[in-house]
Design a protein that fits this description.
heterodimer; A: 163 residues; Wheat Germ Agglutinin (Isolectin 2), domain 1; 3 domains; 8 helices; elongated; B: 352 residues; alpha+beta; Creatine Kinase, Chain A, domain 2; 8-stranded antiparallel beta sheet; two-stranded antiparallel sheet
C-alpha cells in the first residue's frame, strides 16, 4: 500500500480514528516519514534501518564496510542494511566491527550476553549440525567442480547417516 | 486436536483470571532460537527450511506434552485457518503471510505456541491470563531446556543466542503484557504513559502486535533490550516494577473518573452496552471500542450483566475468520458486520 500523503513510500503506519458517539471510523495509511512529520507517531521505536543508516553515515570509509561479504552465506553488509535481517550466525563474525556499534546502540549500550548459557555448550557438535555442514560442503565442492572432494564428503556423510 | 476445535474453546490466557486482571489481559514470553549449522531464513534454501521444519517438529513431538499438540503446516493451510491462528495470537501476521515451509505447534489450552521458520528458526511462546510473568518464565525456560537437549542452538559466548535480527540477540527474550487502559485514554493521560514506556526502552504496540495500531484502548507493552541483562532481570523488572506501575496509573485514573465524572463514566459504559445489545451491524473497530468500555464497566463493578471472561471471548470471536468459522460460510465486509452484531446480540441475550 502506498502512502496516502506523499504517494511514494510504502504506508507502514495505519491509523484508525473512531469518532464518538456513533463510532464512525476514519482510516488513513501513511508512511513513517509522513506520520512523523504530522506528529502522528507517539512512540518512536527506532527502526533498524534508521539505526543502520545513521551508523553508516558516521563511519568513515563506509563503502568498504558495506561491501564486506560473509564467507559462509555470501550476504553483504549492504544487503543486511536493506532488510535488517542477517543471513547466518557467522555474519556476527563477518560484520563484527559495524555490528558491534549497531548492537551497542540498539541494546542500550550492552555488548555482552549475561543470560542463559546452553547446557551443551562446548560439547561435541550434534549429529544434525555435522550432517547439515557436510551437505553444504558437498554442494560447494560441486559448484567449484572439485568432485573428488565432494565424493569424500559424501562418504563421510553416508557413514554418519548410518551410525 | 484440529484447527476447528480451537473455535469451540477459549485459550487459557483469555480467562480473565490472575493478578491485576482488571487491567492486565494477558502475559506472554517468547524466546527466539536458531539451529546451529543452518543459515538464517533469509539465506535458507528450500531444502534447509524443510530440514529445519522436520527436525524441530520431531523434537516438539518428543516433548512431554507432545501428544496434545496441534502441529499446523502453515504453507499448506487454508487462508482462513491461517487468519484464525493470527486472530488467536498463536502466530504472527508475518508468519501467516510468509512463504515456504513453515509451521506452528500449539499446545492444548493454547498455553504454548512454537513457530517454526518465522523470522528465526524457532520462536517459543508461552502465555497466561493476568500478570503471571514469573511462572511463565519458569515454564518457557524448562521448555527451552528440553528442546536444547535435542538440538544445538546457534550460540556465541560473547553475544549469546544468535538471532536473524540483531535487536533480539543475547537472550532472544521478549516479555510482553497486554494492558487495557481505557481510563488513561478518557482522562488524556495515555501519552504520558507512552513517554514513560519510551524512557524505559519499552515498545508499545496495538492489540495484534508488531505493525498494528492501538485500537480500543488495548496496548501491548514489551521489552526491546535483549542483551546485557539476564532473562530473570528482564522478567523481574517487568513483573515487579514496570507493569504494576502502569496498572497503578490506570487504577488512579479510574478512581478519578469515579470521584469526579461518574456520570460520564456510566454513560460510556451503558451506551456501549446498549449499542452492543441492539445494533444490527457493527464494524470490527467500533466493536473493539464498545467492548473496551463495557470491559471497563465490568471490571470497575459498574455493570454486572456480564463477566470479563465472556467479554474476552467476544474480542476473539468477532474477528473475521472466527465469524466465518462460526457461521460456516464466507462473508463479505457488510455481511460480517451483520453477523458480528448478531453474534454479540445473542451472546448478551443469553446472559440475561
Amino acid at each position: 500500500m502506498v502512502c496516502q500523503r506523499c504517494n511514494k513510500a510504502q504506508a507502514t503506519v495505519h491509523l484508525t480514528d473512531i469518532v464518538p458517539p456513533e463510532g464512525e471510523k476514519r482510516e488513513r495509511h501513511v508512511c513513517e516519514r509522513c506520520a512523523a512529520e504530522e506528529g502522528l507517531i507517539v512512540q518512536k521505536h527506532e527502526p533498524i534501518a534508521a539505526i543502520l543508516d545513521s551508523f553508516i553515515k558516521q563511519a568513515s570509509g563506509s563503502e568498504k564496510v558495506v561491501d564486506v561479504a560473509c564467507p559462509e552465506c555470501g550476504m553483504t553488509f549492504r544487503e543486511f542494511r536493506s532488510h535488517g535481517l542477517l543471513g547466518c550466525p557467522n555474519d556476527y563474525d563477518a560484520f563484527e566491527r559495524p555490528l558491534t556499534a549497531l548492537i551497542k546502540r540498539a541494546q542500550d549500550g550492552a555488548t555482552h550476553h549475561v543470560g542463559k548459557t546452553p547446557a551443551r555448550l562446548g560439547a561435541e557438535p550434534s549429529i544434525h549440525v555435522k550432517i547439515a555442514k557436510l551437505k553444504r560442503q558437498i554442494h560447494e565442492a560441486v559448484e567449484v567442480e572439485d568432485y573428488e572432494l565432494a565424493a569424500r564428503y559424501r562418504d563421510t556423510l553416508a557413514e554418519l547417516e548410518q551410525s | 486436536m484440529t484447527i476447528d476445535n480451537l473455535t469451540k474453546q477459549t485459550g487459557e490466557w483469555l480467562r480473565g483470571e490472575g493478578p491485576y486482571s482488571d487491567v492486565v489481559i494477558s502475559s506472554r514470553i517468547r524466546l527466539a532460537r536458531n539451529i546451529a549449522g543452518f543459515p538464517f531464513l533469509s539465506k535458507a534454501s528450500d531444502s534447509d527450511r524443510k530440514q529445519i521444519f522436520r527436525l524441530l517438529s520431531d523434537c516438539i513431538g518428543d516433548l512431554e506434552f507432545g501428544q496434545e499438540n496441534l502441529i499446523v503446516d502453515i504453507e499448506d493451510a487454508q487462508e482462513i485457518d491461517r487468519q484464525l491462528l493470527v486472530e488467536r495470537h498463536l502466530i504472527s501476521r508475518q508468519h501467516a503471510e510468509g512463504e515456504g515451509t513453515r509451521g506452528v505447534a500449539v499446545s492444548a489450552g493454547e498455553k504454548r505456541a512454537l513457530m517454526i521458520n518465522e523470522e528465526d528458526h524457532l520462536r517459543i511462546q508461552t502465555m497466561r491470563s493476568g500478570l503471571q510473568l514469573i511462572p511463565l518464565f519458569e515454564e518457557i525456560n524448562a521448555l527451552d531446556d528440553s528442546l536444547e537437549s535435542q538440538v544445538e542452538y546457534a550460540f556465541d559466548k560473547r553475544l549469546g543466542f544468535l538471532t536473524a535480527c540483531p535487536t533480539n540477540v543475547g537472550t532472544g527474550i521478549r516479555v510482553s503484557v497486554m494492558l487495557h487502559l481505557p481510563a488513561l485514554k478518557i482522562t488524556n493521560h495515555i501519552e504520558q504513559m507512552f513517554r514513560a514506556a519510551k524512557d524505559l526502552k519499552l515498545a508499545v504496540r496495538g492489540l495484534y502486535g508488531e505493525g498494528t495500531d492501538a485500537i480500543g484502548d488495548f496496548f501491548q507493552v514489551s521489552n526491546q533490550v535483549t542483551l546485557g541483562l539476564s532473562e530473570e532481570q528482564i522478567v523481574d523488572e517487568f513483573a515487579t516494577k514496570t507493569i504494576p506501575q502502569f496498572v497503578e496509573y490506570e487504577l488512579a485514573a479510574r478512581n478519578t473518573l469515579l470521584k469526579e465524572r461518574v456520570h460520564l463514566l456510566d454513560d460510556k459504559i451503558w451506551r456501549a452496552y446498549g449499542t452492543l445489545e441492539n445494533a444490527r451491524a457493527l464494524s470490527s473497530d467500533e466493536t473493539l471500542f464498545l467492548l473496551s468500555h463495557l470491559r471497563m464497566g465490568v471490571s470497575m463493578g459498574r455493570c454486572q450483566k456480564i463477566d470479563t471472561d465472556q467479554i474476552n471471548r467476544m474480542f476473539i470471536s468477532v474477528q473475521p475468520a472466527h465469524l466465518q468459522k462460526l457461521t460456516g460460510r464466507r462473508l463479505g465486509g457488510e455481511e460480517r458486520s451483520v453477523a458480528r452484531a448478531e453474534f454479540l446480540r445473542q451472546s448478551l441475550a443469553s446472559r440475561n
